[in-house]
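User: I'm writing a tutorial on reading structure tokens. Could you give me a worked example: one chain, its sequence, then its tokens, then a sentence or two explaining what the tokens reveal?
Assistant: Sure. Here is the example chain.
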Amino acid sequence: MIPRALTIAGSDCSGGAGLQADLKTFTAFGVFGTSAVTAVVAENTVGVQSIHYVPADMVATQIRSVLDDIGTDAVKLGMLSRPEVVTAVAAELRRYGIPRIVLDPVMVAKSGVPLLSVEARLLLKEELLPLAMVVTPNIPEAEVLLDRRIETMDDMKQAAVEIRALGPGWVVVKGGHRGDEREAVDVVFDGSEHHLLSAPFFNTPNTHGTGCTFSAAITAGLARGDAPLTAIQTAKQFITEAVRTALPLGTGRGPTNHFVRMKTGW
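And here are its predicted structure tokens:
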């Protein structure tokens, strides 16, 4: 059977982030993508204009509709927005016993608009982190999860250890926000060993949807049967090329290039 992946996330009408980015990424990896919409976001490269939240019971019904019929090999969690949605999603994931879950703890849009309430952040730590095979916070998100500053590489390594203690199997602390203009280094921790994934840092404003795309690429790899570290390494390669060849669309932060893998064939 063709590999399948379900994204549970918000909708970005501009196509650069959210479930649209996830579905494009799944396709690039030859994975059949399905979705459960948690919020309809009026968003473009300039910022977020409005958010319409989908009721928690409707989110749960979408998940059941997909899993009862098509099923899935992996699940990606993106924007969950509100406490009742976090609780509903956690309940459905436990009900179906999904083993390959990638949690992208989406908290704030690049424009600065909050995408996850304070109460929902606490529930995310308590209910979803223990279910995740892989969690992918950037430095600001890791700081929120741990309630402290993260500045150095040693800070990132320690943060990965502390987040791993909250329950997930693998932690990827993304280093793109660290301010290093030479390279972007992500810290991966598997519970016993740190792995450093380094790539050139590209000074481009077109980074809309990088977090969504990276975590979706990991999800696609897991859906295809890749080991977690292999899926993470392949996703790092994919997002590096997607940013290097980012698309200058719109008047703000343009999207990454989801087509790069299909065009280059790697």
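What the tokens reveal: Residues 228-244 form the longest helix (17 residues). DSSP finds nine helices and nine strands in the chain.
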